[in-house]
User: What shape does this take?
Amino acid sequence: MKQIITGGTCHLDARMIGKHLEGWRLEDLDFLIIENVGNLVCPSSYDLGEECKIVLLSTTEGEDKPLKYPSIFAKSALMLLTKIDLLPYVPFKAELARENARRVNPQIEIVELSSTTGEGLDCWMDWLQRRHSVRSPLQAGA
Assistant: This one.
């Protein structure tokens, strides 16, 4: 893990990523996950050289977020619906969140998970493995 200081900007950019990857043996990595700075607006506007974007939507944020911040949902291949262990305790309609995400991006895949209970983590790991296995040899560094 490596922390990148953005210097007060609301996002990471490709230059920041490139600078902080200097000296890393990228050929030894199966995955490089970049967590962009925490909002649903700025990160959608910047290409970091990623193979795909994954958006996290927490059950504590509200099911309206895909409609309120459509850009990141439109550009993401996967939506992780997080904190599903809180569903009995928060006024969040998971089905409506899924519908709203698919209104913005009909192809978006959705995985529901809880980091507390571990529910859904196997589905997310399977998704990552499928994405990794369908990459072309050029993308895989062959």
Observations:
- The mean pLDDT is 86.
